[in-house]
Structure formats: structure tokens, C-alpha cells
Amino acid sequence: MHCHRIASAVALALGVAAHRAHAQTPTVSVGGVIYTHFGYQLDTDTTLAVPGHRNNIDVSRSYITVNGKSGTVTARITADVDGRRAASNQQTFRLKYAFLSYAPDGFPVSFKLGAIPTPFIEWDEAMWGYRMQGTVALDRNSYLTSSDFGFGVDGSWLKERINFQSGIYNGEGYNNAPGDQYKDVAARASFRLAGTDDSSRIGGLRVTGFALFGTRTGGGTRQRLLAMLSYKTKALTVAAQVAETRDSLAATAPDVAGRVVSAYVTWGVPKSKVRVLARVDLVDPDVDSEPSTPSLSAGRQARVIAGVSYELTPNVRVLADADLNSLRHGSPSAAFTATRQTLFFHAEYRF
């Protein structure tokens, strides 16, 4: 009788396990996004064989994403094709995201391992909403990367009133080889102070803080501290952020303090699919000194972006904008002069 009961219990357990395995058959979805553009440079490019206004049609970025889900475990793989040409004059194909995520049932925290999103850039891009125009300020100026190899913890509480993301990362970014024994630790926390008609994780009046502390490969400081205030409704987005940076390229090199200020606004014209946007990025790589001659490594830069977008379909948007960059004390080279002021026509297609 005892053996019979044990056999029955084992059979029942195997049946339950088989039922769960069948119920958790992985589901797979595939999607992607294409960013293409036409750019016309306002300044004469004297580096051309025949000096003139360089203009080209190009694909700035394209992504293919595969998502898989099996119960409480999900996986994501994103291939990134970078429109910037490599030394061989070919576009660069990279693995941007490749990670497993575990989200226990009824638990507000999930865990990620692999090539994972870093805490702030994806958040900032979602708030700005116009990745097709280009990267956000901290990414564009190489202070942060959007993906890195690491272990992350994400969480949200009180219906996204509190949103949190943190992780330990190699620190070299997804587009570089892993470094040595040094790692970066980064975290972002966002608190919704007041609600709006946008109930998403980035909606409402929010205050966001971000910090990164790390050491470069071979030694050297890498530190980022940021504060951000944002207000987002379905029609209006307003955000401003200030980041303090500290870097040294080697263990024996002195730290250099920098500052990045970025502010942007997007507004949807009522009863239309038109949206107006504007952004200002102020970058000072070295706040303790100001060169008397043009310098990309130490001089202050100011970038102004302004444009109008139109939603052709829920999956397709177009954007006409001006991207104007200036460097204190003028231009250090003909190449910088030729590329600093550009008129763009962008298109974004998601599938």
C-alpha cells in the first residue's frame, strides 16, 4: 500500500510537471526598426574633391529583435547594423542585446544577465522619443552606452510610481571587447511626483536620479552623476537633465571634470499627427579649464535640434529637422566645419 501511494504521488508529480512544461512552451516574436535619412550639410566641405555641400541618403541604424518567453523566463536578442562605415568601408554588424530575464511570479523585481540595457540611456530615449534623429546627449558624446555586458536588477512599485534599474557591467560597452578585472556599478531611480493622462512608466511629473561609478580597463576613473526632471502627457513632453562627469584615462592620470546639460520638448499639435520638437545639448568636457583655441577634447559645444514630425501610420514616422552644432572659439578642422550643421529628413519604420 505504501509503495502504491508513492507510485501514485510520483505519477501525479510527473503529470503536473508535464502539464506545466506543455503550458510553458516558448513563444517567439520577431520585430525590428529601420532609421533612414537624407542629410544636407549647410557648410561647404573643402575636403571633397570638388568642394561643395555634402549630401547623401543613408541608413543610420537598423535593428532586428527576437524575443522568446517561457513562463517566468524571457530572452531577447537584438542585432544592430551601424550605418557608420568601418575601416573596410562596410557597415558594422554587432550584437547589441542578448540576455535572459527572470521575473518571479508576483515579485516586482526582475533579473537580467548578458548583454543588457544600461540603466539610463534607454530611459532617456523613451522619454525623448526621437531616436531616429540621433542618440541622446550622454550617448552622443560618449559618456554612456546604451548596452553593456553585465548583471542587472529592474523593479517597479505602486503602478510605476517608482521605477528602478541597476546593474554591474564590464564597463566597455557592447561594441568593445570585455576589459579586465575592473567593473562599473550603475543605478537609476525615478519617482512620479504627480500623474497625468500618460500612465506609462515614463509618464507624469517625475524626478530621476542616476549614478555610475567605475574604473576603466587598466585603471582610471569613470564617474557619472545625473539629475533629471520631466513632465510627460500624451501631448507634451518636457525634460531637463544635468550630468556631472569625472574621467581619467589611466590610473596615474589626473581626473578631468565635465558637465553635460540637455533639455528637450516635444508637443503634439491637437487633432493632428504632427509633432513639434526642440532640444539643446550643452557639453563642457573640462569645466576647470577653457582653451583659447578650438578644441574638441576641452572646448564647450552647444547643439540645437529643432524639427517637425508626422505619423504616416502607427508604424511609420517621418521627421524634418535641423541639427546645428557649434564649438567655442570656432572650428578646429575643415572636417568639423563640414559636418556641424545639417538639415535632415528622417524616416522610421517599425515592424
Question: How are the SSEs placed, and which strands pair?
Answer:
Layout: H1 2-23, E1 27-41, E2 55-70, E3 73-85, E4 91-102, E5 109-117, H2 121-128, H3 137-140, E6 147-157, E7 162-169, E8 184-194, E9 204-215, E10 221-232, E11 236-247, E12 256-268, E13 274-284, E14 301-313, E15 316-327, H4 334-339, E16 341-350
Antiparallel strand pairs: 1-2, 1-16, 2-3, 3-4, 4-5, 5-6, 6-7, 7-8, 8-9, 9-10, 10-11, 11-12, 12-13, 13-14, 14-15, 15-16
Your description of this structure?
Helix content is 11%, strand content 54%. The chain is mainly beta and 351 residues long. Strand 4 (91-102) and strand 5 (109-117) form a beta hairpin. The chain is built from four helices and 16 strands. The mean pLDDT is 91. It starts with a helix and ends with a strand. It has a 16-stranded antiparallel beta barrel.
